[in-house]
Predict the structure.
Amino acid sequence: MKTKFFWLITVSIVVFLALSSIQGYLIYNTYTLKRNAFIDKTRDRILKIDYNQELDSIVDSWGEELKNQIADYKNHRINKKELLYRIKIKADTLNDQYYKVYKRELHSRKLGYELNYKKNIKSIVIFGKENDTIFPLKKDESFRLFGADFTNDKANSVSVSRTFSQFEYIDQTGNDIITQQYNLEVKAQDIMQIIDEKSIVFRQMAGLLIGSLIIFLAMVGLFYYSLKTLIKQKKINAIKTDFINNITHELKTPLATLGIATKGLKVKEIQDDPEAIKHSLTIIDRQNDRIQKLIDQVMSNSLNAENIPLQRTQVLARPYLEEVLEDFKMGLQHQNVLIKTDFFPKKVFLRLDKFYFTTALFNLLDNAVKYSEDPIEITIKTTVDRNQFTIAIQDHGMGISKTAQKNLFDKFYRVPQGDVYQQKGLGLGLYYTEQIVNAHEGEVSVDSEPGKGSTFLIKIPLYR
Ligand code: ADP
């Protein structure tokens, strides 16, 4: 049963985790799809943004500079590095103008969000008998020609363009001045970086995320509720079994004694002996009382603080408690129990239903005896603190662990002592005691340490 329960919980947790991971995976996939769609849409909207005369002429004037610098390069007046430096300087001087126009164009497209843009140069190659790569000098190098300054990570490519054109330059390197031709290939890439891209995509997914969150929370809630109910059900089952075992056990002894006593009454010798009849009848009477007490206990467990029909009267605390202890001692029969008292010296009035309150005190006193070993010593101490009267019942018995203390006042709860209960009981005494004390607007608590003993405290309001 235990392993079945363990597997049920384990499988439920695994299923729950699997479902959560699938949900997480689906959300992630949706995010990727949405993000790609969003980037594609943005790309489409800004793709032809530089099909613009003003921008064309700016790019052309940079192209003109490139051409001039290549002529110098071809005539060995400058090297590649210088060439690059010069065309970059030219680009920088044109950039403000380019960016202004670009921004204006971007604005007119009313995207509804911000983005950064740049045009990068990926390569510049002079084609001839031997190709001459002006740029890049290192692999994967690129430089910003126009636009904003930002790194390429978290950025997206808008388009890649290649221009291939034929140019001429005047070669002055030999004795003759001749016009030479060359082919130039320039590769550029337009790159954009959408500001707050993640949050925009997440905002677009808000409905899905909220829906998923609600479903997830509902799943957690249902899972938690099911497990709680299952555990509770299991506890109730165990309590039920315990209770049936206990009550059977409790009823067996008096019934067996009753059986022996009544059988005895049928025996001729006993019938002839009035003393023996009296003895048997006392036994029958006592066992009858015991069974009645058990039935009362079971019946009373259906009562709780709200429906205990109290009939309260004004009671003087000390004489009342002395009377209760007197009765209790009478019922102890042969047991050797020392009861010490330490009563609050002044007159204190309480408002009690004597019948019920005595039952509550008897329960605690019974337990103090039941869960102690000889020599048994119980101390009853009363104190007054402002408006509150406290009755402390202290024993030096087996004590109660901190974990058991948490459930001590629950219906049917008994502290498990291995598999066997050394003392008989139904686990109803403390539950009923608490209900009675609560009905008196009071509270009951316990302070205990295993092996050292327990002190049960009843606190009720004073009557003034
Ligand atoms: P019962 O005595 O019929 O089992 P109770 O409700 O009176 O039921 O007590 C519940 C449990 O609390 C007991 O089974 C016992 O284990 C523990 N208990 C109660 N009083 C004491 C005590 N004075 N010392 C140690 N254990 C106690």
